[in-house]
TrEMBL record:
The keyword RNA-binding does not apply. GO terms for biological process: polyketide metabolic process. It comes from the Bacteria. The keyword Chloroplast does not apply. This is Putative SnoaL-like aldol condensation-catalyzing enzyme. The chain crosses the membrane at residues 159-179. Residues 1-20 form the signal peptide. It holds the Pfam family SnoaL. Keywords: Membrane, Signal, Transmembrane, Transmembrane helix.
Length: 196
């Protein structure tokens, strides 16, 4: 069905604009198809050069971590997908989509197999469920909310290592002072101070 609708997508979008159709059912169906093709091209196939067909020149991203409310150029979507493709192979499938008004919610699963050391260390192998919410204007994605289940990825390793390093640092501080204090006591004893 997707392959039959895709060639008609430019015509449907153009006819909706020319005829002034504001039918929300038609617009939501078109937005769902645009979102579906976005995943197909950038994440399920290595066709990242098509990013500009789906994403506005600038878009707002709300991601886990520090990327909240950040305005990014459309090419950032290509850069992110290229990083994954450069370091491994991906497959994916859309579990379901829900659309209302100018929003499309997609729950999809990404399957990643790293092929480089960077891919193994930073990205890891396996499946990860993702929920994205796209907001559309004029047939382009203008805002993205990204919700990944990172606990199932190598991201948890980052938090484990961070906790380990903080714990080691906390343990090393008193150990450092104890070592210095022990050396000072030894030096004082050598100078003839009596020990108790």
């Amino acid at each position: 069905m997707t392959s039959r609708i895709l060639p008609l997508l430019p015509f449907l979008t153009l006819s909706a604009v020319v005829l002034g159709a504001d039918d929300p059912v038609d617009r939501t169906a078109i937005n769902k198809e645009i979102a579906r093709q976005f995943y197909e091209d950038l994440w399920f196939q290595d066709r990242t050069d098509k990013y500009h067909q789906y994403v506005a020149d600038e878009y707002i991203v709300h991601d886990i971590g520090d990327r909240k409310g950040v305005v990014e150029p459309a090419a950032e979507q290509q850069r992110i997908a290229d990083f994954f493709w450069k370091n491994g192979t991906m497959r994916g499938n859309i579990d379901y989509q829900v659309a209302e008004g100018d929003l499309v919610v997609t729950r999809w699963t990404a399957d990643y197999k790293p092929e480089t050391l960077i891919g193994r260390v930073l990205l890891g192998a396996g499946s990860i469920p993702i929920i994205n919410v796209f907001r559309f204007e004029d047939g382009k994605i203008v805002e993205i909310w990204n919700h990944r289940h990172d606990i199932d990825t190598n991201q948890r390793l980052k938090f484990v290592l961070q906790g380990l390093l903080i714990g080691l640092l906390i343990a090393l501080i008193p150990a450092f002072f104890a070592f210095r204090f022990k050396r000072r006591i030894r030096a004082l004893r050598e100078e003839g101070y009596p020990s108790r």
